[in-house]
Amino acid sequence: MASKSARAISLHVGLNGVSAAAYSGWDGPLAACEFDAHDMAAIAKSMGMRSTVLLTKKATRAAALAGMRGAAKTLQSGDLFFMSYSGHGGQVRDTNADEPDGQDETWCLYDGQLIDDELYFELSKFAAGARILVLSDSCHSGSVVRDLPPPPPPPGWRAKAMPAAVAARVYRDHAAFYDKLQADVTKAGGKRIVGSDAALAQVGGAVTATALVGNFNPMVVLISGCQDNQTSMDGDHNGAFTEQVLKVWSNGGFKGGYASFHTRIKALMPATQTPNLFTLGKAAPFLAQTPFSV
User: HEC states along 207-273?
Assistant: First the structure.
């Protein structure tokens, strides 16, 4: 575990819908994402973290970015930032040549999408040695809706992927906005930013540290709800991924590190949804710690 003097901040984002005005008439209804955010916040608070929860209409781009930036300014080496997201995943056209498949993956926030380039750039601003845990219960890869249609969800479950036709329409209607976001991130970073598709392709199931976004000083562990070619499912009380996170965590009864935590969660998931684990920075010491430990 980290030093008892370490500080911890958490941010939990859950959207049961999005603004139709920002998504070309689509409001993206889901059922359990707000429950997911509350349940992740409950874990964080039980571990002594200072937590913020952003639900649906309050889960805006500005609010999510402000939460990350505030934590980056506050936390130092050894401190912990825990972020969870539950909602739709989407895609926009890649304009800065950082994605082999030509699409940038997104989180669908209430008033607009957060591009993966932006997420990784914001995380790179944290102090050297800071620990960052991200749990993403969403479909954050576009390949599932570009290449092959996903299998129909089981009864009572809904896919967390923005439909391909909607994604294309949203990008068409707001192309200047999303193109500028990518240009701004590239300019701010002073280099080409490597997005999540490339990270997943290079790291795969391995849990070794990488430096895929240049000089990446914090330690990042990201566990996503599904693989690159799959879709995360939303239920009535929790997302499928979050449901198993809670079960394996067992109110703090879990013993082991993040790698075994991921393995146990994956073992409980159906073959159609396999959670992925990858790291950024020199994350080996972080991986060995008990999940959520401050």
Answer: CCCECCCCCCCCEEEEEECCCCCCCCEECCCCEHHHHHHHHHHHHHCCCCCHHHHHHHHHHHCCCCC
